[in-house]
Amino acid sequence: MADALDFLKEELADLDRQGLLLHPRTLEGEQRARTRFDGRDVINLASNNYLGLAAHPRLKQAAAEAALEFGAGTGAVRTIAGSMTMHRELERRFAEFKHAEDALMFQSGFTANSGTVAALLTKDDLIVSDELNHASIIDGARLSRAQIKVFPHKDAEAAGRLLAESTERRRLVITDGVFSMDGDIAPLPDLVEVAERHGAIMMIDDAHASGVLGKNGRGTVDHFGMNGRVDIQVGTLSKAIGVLGGFIAGSSHLIDWLVNRGRPYLFSTSAPPAVVAACMAALDVLEDEPERLERLWSNTRSFKEGLHELGFDTGTSETPITPVITGAEAATQTFSRRLFEEGVFTPAIVFPTVPRGKARVRTIVTADHTDEDLKESLDTFERVGRELGLI
Ligand code: PMP
């Protein structure tokens, strides 16, 4: 019998020929600085576990206790019967953390972005979006059916021009806080100024900045001292916070609207107790162990310096996300594979995640990496880089 999906085999073979086929590795232990993937012990430069919270004892304890007391799942969406006291408590704590009136938890950062953009704009509106914004923003923009205009990366003046020539009813300026594949920071003060001048809504996706930038990891808005001037802050609970989920922080009328019109919030079951309790414990750890953030940044500085001294191209990175840009897709896959064989896990990032010809291995150091981990990683980068003629 003919298989109606046979065309996928051809598509997959085509991806393979271009060096674009993904082969996700399997983690066989906890998400830590040194751990085991695919049967090999490696130094892990691949996770978003910035502060080392994914396997922090306090988060594990909180998750276990919540599961025992409140069960494994919530059994309903938030608007039917799946809102627990702890969901609202976590949201209040996030609102406070972000200096916002209120906050709302989503099942992921992805749904927080896509659900919020789609709930706010309609076909009569305009979205002005940085060209390197995350896929979840792009999908939300498409779902909204609003007109989408993309401005060159970090070019606030270009965003201003798009707003000046627009005639749409409502306008949204949207940017990532920290760009996930390049590790550079959005020019938030300039974008806010432009949005304010044109009466546009300002939204920032702080997935890679929550827990990383600003006081105690409050994010990009706090980093630039712009509290109170950004209408919508998106955060993820899946990266520095170490667990799973996303949230929106903003005014109480924004949150009330999303409770009524945020489709992932309305139509997908709420986060289980273990997840919510672990997120709460993560906020406690952020306050009680500020040395984690300091360690993250000192590791970031020394690792970047080491890569520069070796002659690698790290692009425009200013944060713990440090790409090592190699360009060609197939060569990058080889680089990543050889590093892994030599004990350093750093994934190859290729099209469509980054533009063609801009392939890279992406490194992320965490607060948990020791000086020895970093030195061994740099030695391995040097050895494999020379072997492949990259430096
Ligand atoms: N925004 C950005 C910039 C991201 O990098 C990611 C994660 N890849 C997300 C949003 C989605 O977050 P989550 O993993 O919580 O869905």
Largest sheet: 7 strands, mixed
Sketch the topology as an H/E string, one letter per element.
HEEHHEHEHEHEHEHEEHHHHEHEEEH
Work out the helicity level: 40-55%
Q: Which regions have little confidence, pLDDT < 50, spanning 5+ residues?
A: none
Structural category is alpha/beta
Query: pLDDT average, as an integer?
Result: 96
Give the tally of β-strands: 13
Can you describe this structure in just a few lines?
This protein has 391 residues and is of the alpha/beta class. The protein has helices at 6-17, 57-70, 85-97, 109-120, 135-144, 156-164, 188-197, 220-223, 252-261, 263-267, 273-288, 291-310, 329-341, 371-387; strands spanning 34-37, 40-44, 102-106, 126-130, 147-151, 171-176, 201-205, 232-236, 246-250, 321-327, 344-345, 348-349, 359-364.
